Amino acid sequence: MSELRVISPRLARRLAVMRQRLAGPRPPADSEGIMEVLRDLGYVQFDPMRIVAQSHLLVLWSRLGLYDRADLDRLLWKERRLFQDWAQTTSIVLTEDHPIFSAMKRGFATGNRRWAERIRAWVDKNREARNHILAQLKQKGPLFSDALETKFVEDWRSTGWTAGRNVHVMLTILWAQGEVMIAGREGNRKVWDLTERFLPEWTPREQLPDREVFRRVAQKSLRALGVARAKQIKQHYIRGGCPNINDILAELQVEGCTKRVQIREGDSVWRGPWFIHASDEPLLDRLAAGDWEPRTTLLSPFDNLICDRQRTERLFSFHFRFEVYVPEPKRKYGCYVMAILHGDRLIGRLDPVMNRKRGELTINAVYAEPNAPKSKETARAVANAVEDLGTFLGAKEIFYGQRLPAAWKSELR
Q1: Residue 172: how many CB atoms within 10 A of its CB?
Q2: 411 lies in some domain
Q3: Are 344 and 17 in contact (CB under 8 A)?
Q4: What is the distance, to the nearest Å, from the Cα of residue 211 to the centroid of all Cα atoms in its chain?
Q5: Which contacts qualify for 73-77: CB closer than 8 Å, 24 or more apart?
Q6: Residue 22: pLDDT above 90?
Q7: How far apart are alpha carbons 342 and 8 in whole angstroms?
Q8: Is there a single domain that holds both residue 326 and residue 393?
């Protein structure tokens, strides 16, 4: 057995940031750059909130800089090299990874869990409505859900917002079963079509056995994270996509695909085990030798680097929570807070809002972490990141509120 490699927390952070494409040379800000980023990240969460911009747009901006959103739309809806499916939530994923997502749908609503039995019973009672929806999509699709007219024997009952939304619920079930796909969007309205028609001819359609699915999911997750514990690997790429993570990691380690590492700072050893992918060892060697090109940028609340809040706290000593649903008087930092990444550290956060009608980006407040650098160079780097965000959003003016760190105030105006 090879000797256990020991790395510092700083080196662990730098590997994570590099694998997330948030340091080093930027990919080209075009279609191929978007594909390059998606291949490394595995997925980008779709979120419709437009307080600043939709999250998936911000995640790509943090890595690519000023790119053309039309390139992303073309990849999704025309070339279809990307599609929307369920990873963490609704996410943008790679069509070349379709066999993984297709395999995930095999077990939907099977088994004897109460929710699965309820779905099967409701679909059985409304079998004619289900078939009618599919027939309409086949004849007239792609279509918005409100264009699909059919009668249901029994309404969908729920204490939430889906109560009585029969067509929506049936389409969601058909999506989870692989029969239909999201074929476009108009605002927050989804366009639906049959999977067999939407996917391009070149789509890989191999039927993967469960074990191979789990192996691919675990490795894609670990490569995106850079360095991670088993629980983090299990949760990151496709939630629930690798139920037997410890067995899979043991198997991959024996094969030499993954390596265990120890994270140590002085005499303090982080609770583990921690893993890296074997293919990332050369990158880790370069980082250890000082090959490091840091950037300063802003991160969406749903950014892949910080979406696991516990991991973010452990790796970056940064406590981050999403407060949009917290009543305003109880918010600590703001509605749609973006973290400030400076090299391998999260040094603060800011509370922005974009007024598209007036072309104004307002930064209500900026907060620096207690140990954040106070230099003028750091303040200028933060200001440049805000200006870059304003350019990406098409802001004509940027306004700052009064709540600014004293050490950065001269540059934030």
Answers
A1: 18
A2: no
A3: yes
A4: 24
A5: 74/31, 75/31, 75/34, 75/35, 77/183, 77/184
A6: yes
A7: 18
A8: yes
Instruction: Provide the pLDDT for residue 18.
Output: 98
**One domain for residues 43 and 91:** yes
Chosen domain end from 152, 182, 198:
198
Give the span between the Cα atoms of 79 and 201, in whole angstroms: 11
Are 369 and 346 a contacting pair, CB within 8 Å?
yes
- Do residues 92 and 212 both lie within one domain? yes
Q: Domain total for the chain?
A: 3
Q: How far apart are CA 275 and CA 228, in angstroms?
A: 5
Q: pLDDT grade, residue 111 (50/70/90)?
A: confident
What is the residue range of 351's domain? 321-403
Q: Confidence class of residue 295 from pLDDT cuts 50, 70 and 90?
A: very high
Q: Per the structure block, which two tokens stand in for 373?
A: 């650098």
- pLDDT tens for residues 35-90? 999 999 999 999 989 999 999 999 999 999 999 999 999 999 999 999 999 998 99
Taking 60 as the threshold, does the pLDDT of residue 1 lie above it? no
Tokens of 20: 């997330």
Q: Model-level pTM?
A: 0.96
Instruction: Compute the residue count for the chain.
Output: 413
The band of 2, judged by pLDDT with boundaries at 50, 70 and 90, is: low
Residue 164 sits in a domain whose CATH number is 1.10.10
Q: Which of 64, 78, 66 is nearest to 35 (CA)?
A: 64
